Write the structure tokens for this entry.
Amino acid sequence: MRTEQLEYIAAVTRLGSLRRAAEELRLSQPALSETVRNLERELGVDLLDRKRSGSTMSAQGRELLPHIVSVLEALDRLRSAAGEQHRISRMVRVGTVNAATVPLLVPVVRDFRATHPVTQVEVVGAQQTEIQRALAEGGFDLGLVNHLDGDDVPAGLETSRLLRGRPVVCMHPDSPLASRPAVTADELLGEPLVAMRSGYVMHRFVHRLLAGRVPAFSYSTDGAEMGKLMVAEGLGVTVLPDFSVIGDPLERLGRITHRPLADDSTRVLLMLQRRKGDSVPQAAQDLHQGFVDRARELNRLRSLAGAGPTAAPGT
């Protein structure tokens, strides 16, 4: 039995198919399939269900997976203890709704790379439902999602609250709304609105805020980062969580600013999620802790700046 055989099986499980595992491992599919067959013959069990539509992990394979992961983690600990400088690279996949990407995600990934130089981090932008489905299926190790107060949290996911903020109107500093201490829903209706597409939490919030009324003109986009760029170019205004705007490079450069919504007490939570009950690779655990530590620091800075109530990181 060879270490790479176990790593290949773990990749098939994480990615959900033999084809995707072969692509990530940069192997031909026949070569990967033959390696897995050799391991199956040695163990005496079928690890994969092979169908015309593709190959996926069998029930027997899923039962053996925790033992496979334990062996791989034990090998990593051994390499670390021996001071090995050329450890096998691992990949941690993070799904994000693209809110708080700059103030939170980028510094965490930068610090993580300094301590895990051979571990790849893949950041994938997606909608909340897509992220949670991929977490449940093993496609993502971690997920950053937004919740409005009162939203249900999927039972199969472990959730840590990172940031707690409020929706604000993000605008160009030259916008007439920038002279207001707060922006009303009626004033928002009179401006070109950069709206998030259906499926995003902020789309649902704005629809509720405007009570079904339609703004004078609107754009539709995926994610906060593109929304902020459009605002910086003077195309309109958008509604985002304050933690997605405060500290953003565009705000620091004076390209965007923000104002609170009048008569609105809604809170938005940025959550970090992962699947419950899994044997989590050490790299994913370390990245998870990096998010929690960075959020704690952001909350401390917000508190000192008087930015309003925040939620300390916690499960």
In short: Confidence is low (pLDDT under 50) at residues 84-88, 308-315. DSSP finds twelve helices and twelve strands in the chain. The radius of gyration is 23 Å. The longest helix spans residues 59-81.
